[in-house]
Amino acid sequence: MTIPLHDLKGLLPDQLRQLATDLGEPSYRGDQLFEWLHVHQARDLDGMTNLPARFRQVLAEAGAQMPGLELLESSASDTGKAVKFLFDLGQGGNGQGLGQVEAVLIIDGDRRTACLSSQVGCALDCKFCATAQMGFVRNLHAGQIVEQLHRLHQEAQRRGERLTNIVMMGMGEPLLNYEQVTCALRLARASDGQLQIGGRKMTVSTAGHVPGILRLSEDDLNVGLAISLNATEDETRSQIMPINRKWPIADLMAAAKTYFDRKGRRVTFEYVLMDQVTDLDADADRLAVLTSSIPCKINLIPYNELAPGLQISDRVYRRPSSARLDRFTRRLKNATRHTVTRRDSRGRDIDAACGQLHRRVTDAQSAVSATPQRA
Ligand code: SF4
Q1: What is the pTM for the complete model shown?
Q2: Which entry of 68, 92, 198, 300 is 20 to 30 Å from 294 by CA?
Q3: pLDDT one-digit tens code per residue, 187-228
Q4: Could you list the residue range(s) of the whole structural domain that residue 24 is in?
Q5: Is the same domain home to 39 and 104?
């Protein structure tokens, strides 16, 4: 087995044991490495004091690297229900910046959920999403996903709390980075004594990548599945989520049903309510019909309007009025037997829709660099 060393934090326990023996050490050194990486959340080899200095040196000489994240900005929402972090991935071998990702700590009752990014940017071009405007930049390594988790874990600890849940719902489409995302979740599950977040507390959210859903349905991870549905007719959905042209609503609902049949876990449908676009009476009725044969939860999310100046497409999407939100919610609840919740955006005041913090910071940075310097 060839062990990739560019992402030490993204290696599974058996890979670390193999690495240790490949480098002439007993396999338990791999377990010690795992403990340093995932229990103590070490950020470099130097601090791994119970590993022989010779082993650390051999690791370093073999090219072992641990992806670091530099915190650029963090902001807590006024509601106290979300803390958002913007991380820089540093530079690649060619000296070019690798980009930035966002992660959010969501506070909800007893739950402390880490919302993590899977990619820098995103190729799927959803019309209401700030991340889409970046286009696809790169997939994250598993270690970079785990590192986001560790940083949020440290924030929770600083508050005297502990993380309870993980959702892959930040920047990017997780099912288009399947190997690295599932590896990161396996690592989170395996970090005995520290995070102890099992598959039942993990959710992968997809914009509707049907082959990825079917693959996940056969994976032993047994995570929750959330599908960002957001429209009830193909025409509207294809307009706002171009992935629908490839995998239309009927295929998506069939995949959701398969996921339930194989995993026995209710699927969550996320439905963003946008004024006059997805919040019509007919949408509520169709949503009830579409989901009628799939054991599921339906999570209504009033659209999180972008800050002024961050318009991201020709069309300006608006949050529906409270009256329209209430009307849609009532109508859907009357028409379905499923649980319907409405999540009033927890981080509305901190750019918590994916990609918004990054957009605001980079826009501000370009504004600064474009400002002529005074002599
Ligand atoms: S909403 Fe999600 S899938 Fe769609 S473009 Fe944004 S990050 Fe990508």
Answers
A1: 0.90
A2: 198
A3: 999 876 567 788 889 999 999 999 999 999 999 999 999 999
A4: 8-61
A5: no
